[in-house]
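P.,

For your records, the input lines for the assembly:
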Amino acid sequence: MSALGWAIADGWTITRRTLTHWRMQPGLMLFSWFFPVLMLLIFGSLLGGAMEFPEGESYYELLVPGIFALTMLFGLEGTMTAVTQDKDKGVTDRFRSLPMSSAAVVLGRCMADMLDTLVALAVLVATGLALGWRWHEGLPSALAAFGLLLLLRFALLWVGIFIGLSAKNAESLTVVQVLVWPIGFLSSTFVATSTMPDWLGTIAQWSPLSATATASRTLFGNPDASTTTTWIGSHSVLMAVIAPLVLTAIFLPLSAHRYRTLSR
Amino acid sequence: MTKQQVIEAADVRKNYRGGTEGAGLNGFDLEVTAGTVTGLLGPNGAGKTTAVRILSTLLQLDSGTASVAGYDVRRQGAEVRRRIGLVGQYAAIDEVLTGRQNLVMFGRLNHLGHAKAVRRADELLDQFSLSAAAGQSVGKYSGGMRRRLDLAASLIVAPAVLFVDEPTTGLDPAGRLEVWTAIRQLVDNGTTVLLTTQYLEEADQLANRISMLKDGKVVAEGTPDQLKTQLGSDWLDLVLVDPAQVAQVLAFAEPLADGEIRVEGTRISVPVKDRTRALTVMANSLHEARIDPEDITLRRPTLDEVFLHLTGASV
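Structure tokens returned:
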């Protein structure tokens, strides 16, 4: 088999390890997949009533795509934790001492986390539809929106692998686990950035999370006031493509380098 | 490669940037012959783990040369990895998966086909007496069981050399015995093992040859017996019944002593050169003085004494 063939075969073996984890710990997995649903329901019923929308429009039209994007961000945590645990327990060292493809470890992580994200997203979409959220621009456009969401997750995967490999131990990840919240809030996830104070709105608009949230709203045909008011708002789809690619271009090589030179 | 040298390291040096991550190596030399167990013995921070990580290609050396199974660890890492097994300081196994699932996964990553990986997993589970727990999640295993599974995972493809880094650190005495038994079995089957340990007893029990490490350098090397002899003499130990007799017996001991006599209460330890003569002369003197000692024995120095002598470390 070729080097690429082995990388994929070994990567799949490592992916299957995660799939076996799902089977062995179904409760934990169900919780992680339903956590975004919980947030959707909490924020929807908590804030939805306080907001004014045109006749017949509900907060869920704005919120559901926001929670989609937020779920991509929160996926970072799972990636980091898994990577750090393997490094801490010496599992990564064992992989590195095997005659397997060295790309396979990250490839396996990548496939497993993307599958995990697909399940979480499917659960969220079903819940969103049940709550009255709809896409209005046709299926191809909606699929493009899902594509952009997964692209963001893919980019954050490399950020997660890099942080996970760099972290001293699982405890030091707490900082990042706390930081994802303000990053999540400081974006167009929950409200249009045009409702924020100018300076804060500007920061929030340039967040890659906002770009993806706003872009997916555009493609779904869901309302987002920021799309018309500013340049960045009206170019959100472009930004939602570029920002993840830039993140990947930075963190993929960094992760690869980190992996090759672990504790040197 | 000379005929049976599985590991050859010469003047290996390694400095960690920052310096806090681990102990470096300062001209580390090692030769390991096929079919032997070599113990790398040294206190914490002597560089044992660094040496193992370099030889198993996890870490780059700064200078010097090292080869495993005839392949250069720096330039032919992939070839080296095909021929080694590594048991690191922590049981590097997946805690969620079962014992069998772990071994099958590592078998697949060693590029065995599925059926072969399953067969090999069952063989190893049997060899390490883990068959009964094969279907249990590793999270439920005892420390000794984890270590044994860890050893098994390193032996999926019979390695030319198995690196075992501090295999019993953190285990209870029962777990320690389990692991010792498992390692002895490997050696009986002809596996070459490089073992690091900070326990003298462990090195004495398991290793044919010991290299003592201090500050990233081998300070003594040989069989356990040779090392004990290197320190010099054998000891004649006497335990007396009556403290009043100590002075008299010391007078008998003076002419036999080849070094400083140690006295602790009623115990007198005399370093001697000619062991049997010293024993008969002493026995005779005691007999004539009508002194019946509680105990009289000849012994080699313990590895502890060699260790303390060579490293100046406290045990």
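Two observations worth noting. The longest helix of chain B spans residues 173-188. The domain at 233-300 of chain B is CATH 3.30.70.980 (Alpha-Beta Plaits).

Regards
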